[in-house]
Amino acid sequence: NGGSRTPSCSFEEMVSLTNSGSSEGSNSTDYTSRRSTASIQSVPLQSSPIDKKFTESTLSLKSSFAMLVSGLAILSLVFVRSAGSTSRTIEHFAIARPFPTHGSSFGGKLNLGHAEGHNRSSTDSLIEKHKQYVPAHNTNTGAVRSLSSQNVLNLRGHYIHDEHRSPYASHLYDAPEEVLQSIQDSYVKKMDRVRKEWGAWSFVDPGEDIYGPKGRDRPVTDFTGIPYKDLDRDQFVEGSWQTDEAYVTEFISEAKKLVNRVREAIYAEYGHPAKKKDGTPISDEDLEKREQMFRLITDEFKLCRGKPVAIDDDSACKKSAVPLPGIGYWRKEAFEELSRKLLHAMITSDEFYVVLGGHSSAAGHGNNFMQSKMMQFHLIMEPVFDRLGMRLVSRNMAQGGVGTLGSVMAGADIYGESDLMIWDSEMTERDAGAHDLFNRQAILSGERVPVLLMPKMNDLEKRTDMLYAWGDGDTISPRSDFETGLLEKTKDAEHVETLPYAIRYMSCETGNGNLCKDNEYNSECWVRRSDYNPPKDTKIEKYVGGRASWHPGHRVHQLIGRKWSLIVLYALEAALDTWNFGMQEKGLPLANEYWHVGTEVLDTQYKIPPTYEEIRQKLRSYVPDNDGEVSKCEKLLHNFPIVCKVAMHGYTEWTPRALPEERSLRAILKRGPSGYLPMFSGVNAYNGFDILPPKWQIPEGEIDVHAIAIATTLPPPDDNNDPAGPMDYRADPSSEVEAKKGESEIDEQRLLTVSLPSAKSESHNDDISEEQQLAMRRLGEKLVHFGMEGHHLVPLRPAQQNRRLLTDEESQEIIPGEGWLYSGGRCGFCDGSFQSECQRSFDSTCPMKGHSDGRSGLLGDALSGWLVFEVPNVKEGIIILRLEVWKDPNSNTRTEGWTKGNTSVEDERPENINGLADNANAEGRRLFIPENDFYFDYAINGDIKTMDYSEFISYKEKVGKNMSLWPIMLPSEEKEQVSSNNKEKKGETVEVAIRLRSSAGRQATVAVSHLYYA
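-> structure tokens emitted (1014 positions)
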């Protein structure tokens, strides 16, 4: 950013800087809840004290904590004292945060949007430094790595959530200094007004007299290696904040005030404040009406054409039915589990993952990515989670033109871990089997079992022995909000100015439809910057493309994001009440039965929610009532129904991916003899966060929910010290090493390195591939652009392939062919998160669009040779490929001019290696080869098998939108019984090789986009 870093984008061009210094079959479904109250009430999960014997062993802090020079970690020795025995010493790492757990983590010199931060920090060096703060994950609980250093560093968060510096006053704007200063002055005054009128976060550690300023020396309990972080209450370190009644009491009080402020701000934003304009409170009648409009419906209701209506409503289910007032509906059990999850995350200072799967509308097409509903949720809730000691990770994993199937087939590997999973793919996925697969993989894969804001649960509750009831929910459509009175329609151009800013132009009265249509979107493709601007000959679009009738504008996305925020705020309030109740009943640390999520809670007389392990075991081991009974998922995937019972994994070239490089197909792909690897040569023209379009500023006098959420009474960070650092304990290195065993890691030989300083070394570009030379040339151009022409590029040569060679039936070596091409591609960091930096190529006509969804693949034909993968940790004997057989013939430019199948590099290579973008409308095309002249060879650990045309094309039947699957390896029937816990199985690495054979040559074209396995 600002010329201080070398932008990196593609897999091969990663650089490291080294400084010299609706329900099935019915329109009406009953959901009966035990709760009859009109709105969510914060109630504890238990109502009676529970006697519990504490173990005689207790932990106490014996040694004093010594802060390291970095201020990032401390090592403590914890002594275990047993009654009647001498003390024994064990090593225990308790890591101190550089700033208080429940303070403010945003701003300071990590806000690179302002000169104080920008001039003192290099983005690349910060990303590299923050790799050490990526938390380890517990492989013994099936956890999937879901965080990158970009997520942990969170530069966009530091830029946007800084309460002391306006994001619109950044030096990155191409604007006069006096203009920016004026904006900053106004921002300071605005935040002062917010603190005075709404209040602000003001929590201070009450133990400062013991533990120093801001509690810096307070001991910290380390949850590293504890399954699900379900630490027994008697194992918390004495003196840690979770054990301090004064601390927890003050924290709960301050947290409830914060939750209430943000909730009331959202109510007021949509025209329903608690006070009238004259400052007097609204009447009790209006207050009750407001509570009804904004409630989450968990009491008795039934669905009528997707709308919640009164359960005793016996009228016909008509399209004109008016829904019950509320922002959404959900099973009571799902809401309570969300509350429990949040309490768990607060106690453990954990990450909390919210993931959205869906189609183009959910992705936010027609708007900037930051305007999409998930990013709008994150914008408001991230500072709330931060104050409460959690890291919120929100991902919009929706993909245009498809749906969720392509990603959920890979389990949690593509979406990452999830605590709250939201489904929004009605337009592209109406088959109940797709819904069932989505739900099953959400439960079976990864470490966490999410709650599902998903209206289509099928028979999942039955198949988990009535344990899993954390679904059957959705938000109520904005169209219905006008019927319930939550929103008001725009009458005309004069009337709209009297409406709250958030609801203007959302719907117009009859005769004024064009007024709303003309103001539906508010996207921006570019804002001039001080550090980089597109080439002058680039024609920048006026707005983000994709304005289709089924793609709502930014106000609808914001409204849905606010509804999700309210649901989580309600659950947070319930969690805080449970915490307070449990503290009063049983003291601190909080008793296990109130907050443990993954493992069985012992010594309790009362019914508590099922654990993750219980739910998974029931789903895996379900035995149908009769032999002919199959689930919706098994019916859909009738060729390989075992997928519905195991935790799947996968690699893909589609984006978004939670870890874009680690889960790329190329991460497990073997190189050709010359070191060739299909690669994407595109790079981001600039890196770092996008500055905010000025037209997105909330007008003076309107409710700014975000400003209310970020407000604190804390002083600005001292720029002479580190601002608040990562919100997690430093990962135990040994744990992370163990986590990586058996899993694919990025091959260091695939990387190009940028060497600093400027002394040039001898060039050896003559013996590297053309693709690497091209990548080096493009990176060199970027170095010149950013004033770094003195630095040089050093290519890394392909290492000798130290591997077993596969052999085919003719005893020929099966070595990777060099005729495969990378097709399509999205440059940048495309993980679907708030920190993503995607689609900023030099020739982009809308660099700020920001959407992560893209469809790429490895394109090959009958001349391309073998494509060889090494698939790690295969446990269940399942390997499945997603192939695209509708690609245009002769579209593989890599083999242009070739006359025979390739396993070497003697043929002339084409100049154009960038490939062709996938044509989503071409999916119905046939395979362009003669029926009697096509063979698909595939080898598993040297055992070659062949599909002829008839067998191959039989799998072309789509299981979903743009989704055709080819099984490469499946377990035999006698081995299809899945173990109760496949995490305990020992996996193995499997070599998979595929190739096409046909005299049609380049006309026999296929693309590989996904590899799934278990």
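Residues 758 and 791 are 4 Å apart (CA to CA).
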